[in-house]
Amino acid sequence: MPNQKYIKRYLSHYSERSPVIMHTRVPFHKQNNMVWLSVLLLEFVLFVFLSGCVQSNTGYTIKPEAFEVSPDVYADEMTREITMPLHGTMLVSYPWSPEDGRYWRVGVTEGLYVTGDRYVPSPADIPVEVSGTREWMVKAIAPGENTFIGTLRPRGNSWNQEIVQLKIDVLITEESPESGNI
After folding, report:
1. What parts of the sequence cross the membrane (predicted)?
2. d(Cα 80, Cα 153) in Å, to the nearest integer?
3. I need a surface site. Which of 49, 62, 147, 157 has the fewest CB within 10 A?
4. Higher pLDDT residue, 122 or 114?
């Protein structure tokens, strides 16, 4: 019969080094860190869901102070040219459904400056073709002929969605909005 001491020493040595018979116990300090990490992850997920970041029918505003004062002129998808005073403001509103996977990208020439950007969802109880409106507040900073261009682009490689480009020619006059000579 084999020596009992030898078998005991062999098994203890085998269980310490073998990938098959390894101890799966995690040290207490690492367990504690894993618990805190799990709690933080759960809090983050709850924060995202409760804050409305995942709801498609909520609006957003970038630089809300730009929208506190009424604009001097309004423009929409039907506007092709407009005249506005120097230092005046223009509110550009284009229809947008963020759920369709497209996004608006805007560009302006040197005499214009985009001061704010927001998405305003349509009321949920009214059936509409688009789910909301994308709006930009634009300020005239230099007189002359300028251009506002909005491009509705598909995200990624969406081959079946068209690209829509809307252009507004903006003539900025030397008159200020306070003078009343618009």
Report:
1. 34-52
2. 20
3. 157
4. 114
